[in-house]
Design brief:
Helix 3 runs antiparallel to helix 4. The protein is of the alpha+beta class. Strands 1-6-5-4-3-2 form a six-stranded antiparallel beta sheet. The protein has four helices and six strands. About 5% of the residues have low confidence. The chain is globular, with a radius of gyration of 27 Å.
């Protein structure tokens, strides 16, 4: 092989290497961009209702208070709210009725409930909550405890969303907060008017 032929061969090899390198770089860039776009899309689609409270209490105390739904949500609840794989029944007049099951427990860290049956009398699709989950995540925040509540599946497109948003915000940030920090919540009282009555009047739910 003469000198000229060797130079041509080297040039061809270098060109091939550059092409392959650029192709690999472009592929990595495309994959990175897709990953970034998918991440952004996930964030945009994550519209589940959430509420977070920060309390001066131990994770254990917060965990035990959350499980006691009668002490912060409603005294009319029937059935156990703190036993794994057990169901309880919540209702407020004929405005809202639902059956909920505790399906996951991580002591002092997490509680997951699933809505098995549900009925609202003020929207067209009375079963909007069915299959959604109530998730409580408990974390230590440098001497305080953070409780993050997510109603997985309760999204703004639901007809009941504005009412439910209002209700959960009151029960989580006020009643549950007070139960954990002061030892007494403000649940809807048995056979009496309470926060639910205020909501019913505010939203015209009769």
């Amino acid at each position: 092989m003469n000198k000229q032929t060797m130079q041509i061969a080297q040039t061809l090899i270098l060109t091939a290497v550059l092409i392959l390198s650029y192709g690999s770089y472009a592929q990595r860039n495309t994959e990175d961009q897709l990953t970034e776009n998918n991440s952004k899309q996930t964030d945009m689609n994550n519209q589940d209702y959430t509420a977070t409270i920060l309390v001066d209490a131990t994770p254990k105390k917060a965990y035990n208070c959350i499980k006691d739904f009668r002490a912060w949500w409603s005294e009319d609840i029937e059935g156990p709210t703190d036993r794994l794989n057990e169901e309880f029944f919540y209702h407020y007049k004929d405005i809202h009725l639902c059956k909920i099951k505790l399906i996951g427990m991580e002591e002092n860290r997490k509680l997951v409930y699933e809505v098995l049956d549900n009925e609202f009398n003020f929207i067209e699709d009375k079963t909007e909550w069915v299959g959604t989950r109530l998730i409580f995540e408990i974390t230590d925040e440098g001497g305080q405890t953070k409780v993050k509540f997510t109603h997985k599946g309760l999204v703004p497109s639901y007809e009941c969303y504005e009412v439910c948003n209002d209700a959960w915000t009151g029960y989580i940030t006020n009643s549950l907060y007070k139960l954990i920090t002061e030892g007494k919540g403000e649940p809807n009282p048995k056979n009496e008017d309470g926060f639910n009555a205020e909501l019913a009047e505010k939203w015209g739910l009769n």
